[in-house]
Prior knowledge:
By secondary structure, the protein is α/β, with parallel strands linked by helices. The chain has a single domain (25-31, 40-222), classed as Rossmann fold, CATH 3.40.50. The protein has helices at residues 23-31, 48-60, 85-93, 114-123, 177-180, 196-204, and strands spanning 16-19, 41-45, 68-72, 74-76, 104-105, 131-137, 152-153, 159-162, 172-175, 183-190, 218-222. The protein is globular, with a radius of gyration of 16 Å.
Amino acid sequence: MIPKSFISRKENLKLIEIKVKSEEEALNTAISFLPTNNLKVNICFTGGNFGIGVVKRIKEEKFDISNWSIFQTDERIDSKKEEIIQIKIISNLEKCKGFNILNCNFFPHNSKNEKLDSLFGNLKVIPNKRFDITFLSLGEDGHLAGHFESSVLMENKQFCYTENAPKLPKKRVSFKLERLLNSELIILACLGENKKEALQKLLSGENMHHELMHHKGLVLIKD
């Protein structure tokens, strides 16, 4: 049984693989690594079914998020309101004790990228420029966050952008994976038969993001 407490890099974690029988079990496992003692932490949430499932479970479990600085791994650009990741994150976390929109550090969701400068500035105040916890979900094509093979590095070298994602919406802005690897703990979900091949390539080093597998604080949740 995984303790419901924050795990520090100081414990010299190696890859932990956890096999689950359902999406519900995967979500419960993921949130079990979140702090329950009101620690001050920087948490980076991904989108997609898994990422939004995580924030929904946080809402349902009534976490106190007073001391959380909230980030997102990536965002969809020029999309319909119901497709925008940060709106989904806010609609769930705003129900939690201590929610403050000023603690949220989001990407812009339109083609104008003025907010990227503000986000870049917020990163500078993070201790050691490191996230405490980052949630990721492996894509069918092997992408992580919004970092695809078609993504190009932006000027500040922390973010990347593509107008040719494999699925709609096509335009995505994201932290590049190397930046997300600078996290104390990474929770990676790989759920569903349609992701088995992508996971195998990641494990065998064939995926463009294979360096993730060398991260000392990686927890892989798979079915």
